[in-house]
Amino acid sequence: MGKYLITGGAGFIGSTLANYVSKQNEVIIIDDLSMGKLENLSLGETTVFIEGSVTDQTLLEKVLSENEFDYIFHLAAVASVADSVKRPLETHEVNFESVLMLLELTRKYQGNLKRLVFSSSAAVYGDEPTLPKKEESVIRPLTPYAVDKFAAEQYVLNYNHLYGIPTSAVRFFNVYGPNQNPESPYSGVISILIDRYKKLLSGENVNFTLFGDGSQSRDFVFIDDVIQALLLVANEVSAIGTQFNVGTGKSIALNKLINTIDKELDLKLPIDYGNERIGDIKDSVADISRLKELNYKPQNGIQDGVKKYLISKGLCT
Ligand code: UD2
Fold it and tell me: What average pLDDT score do residues 10-21 get?
């Protein structure tokens, strides 16, 4: 039995983690419900949900000063690269300022913490063409989102080197799975696609806009494997002070991904082609050797993961 703070705990990754750990642990969730949803949560009795923003210093100070945590997972973020290009000031508050504030409060109040895990992103690598991306590859952040994630990640790791706080960071590649919210134009592409297929199956007129020619590729990692990674990173002592890629080590082009789902559902999704998004990365794939050293074994290839996602939405059996 331990005590967990999960920021962004009603969001996609946060809620899946919270549902998992709350079976046997005490969990406090902070989420402003900007993208997260209470329906994502199926929590044990020892879980406390606090509606609020991680940019609210008074709230964070209260929570950190009144509780002694074993684990802090800072998963609250504006997770969209494109949104950060549109609203750099607002996204900076959430994606960077909140992290520094949380680190300071942790330094002040959380003397017995076992681990703080920060969610960084593969976006930090930018468009430097060498693939696959290793943790020590060239960093070339191209967007406010990527700059904030990289700066925050470095602060997080330096709080270990400077003050001895047990921190780790994960660089998420493209995470997908059931609790992902497809409602924003900035949502993850697989959640948008599955939403469109669902509407198509129920007879609605739908279209999906593909930004660019669809040859861009991503390392899509299924949520269950991400939870496995987060728990390994949080519990292995050798992970302290270090960042880890979280992906599968394989990538797929969007065109091919859409073909795969078309085939699975025996449908043809109508596609509009739009301009490539500013700041969009062409190809992205993780080298996951460092995470594998912690005994990480991704269980879901893209085909298996998408199938599980489709089943969870009742789109296939
Ligand atoms: C994802 C994550 C980001 C970060 C990064 C790491 C989301 C929302 N973003 O950014 O947080 O961790 O991965 O690599 O999960 N696209 C379309 N049509 C749409 C939506 C997207 O064509 O309606 C394209 C988009 O232009 C891009 C690709 O799909 O080429 C993936 O886009 P995304 O927003 O799902 O994810 P990405 O890689 O920008």
Answer: 97
Inter-axis angle of helices 302-312 and 189-201, nearest 10: 50
* End-to-end C-alpha distance for the chain, whole angstroms: 36
pTM above threshold 0.85: yes
DSSP for 190-253 reads HHHHHHHHHHHHTT----EEEESSS--EE-EEEHHHHHHHHHHHHH-GGGTT-EEEES-S--EE
Kindly state the tokens that stand for 305: 């993961």
Write out pLDDT tens, residues 159-187. 999 999 999 999 999 999 999 999 998 89
Q: What is the dihedral of CA 20, 22, 28, 29, to 10 degrees?
A: 30
Query: From the CB of 122, is ligand 1 less than 6 Å away?
Result: yes
Secondary structure element (H or E) that encloses residue 58, with its range: helix 57-66
Q: Which residue of the set 145, 155, 176, 309 is catalytic?
A: 145
Span 176-219+249-312 CATH architecture: Alpha-Beta Complex (3.90)
- Beta carbons within 8 Å of 185's beta carbon, 6+ residues apart: 82
- Provide the pLDDT for residue 191: 98
**What CATH number was assigned to the domain covering residues 3-174+222-246?**
3.40.50.720
| Cα–Cα distance measured from residue 298 to residue 296, given in angstroms and rounded to the nearest whole number | 6
Ligand 1 in reach of 35 Cβ (< 6 A): no
Would you state the structure tokens that stand for residue 204, as one six-digit string?
């609605």
| Integer CA distances (angstroms), 140 to 82, 153, 158, 169, 216, in order | 17, 14, 20, 18, 18
Q: Where in the chain is the domain with CATH 3.40.50.720?
A: 3-174+222-246
188 C-alpha to center of ligand 1: Å?
5
As a whole-number percent, the residues of the chain with pLDDT over 70 amount to 100
* Helix 223-235, helix 12-21: angle, nearest 10: 60
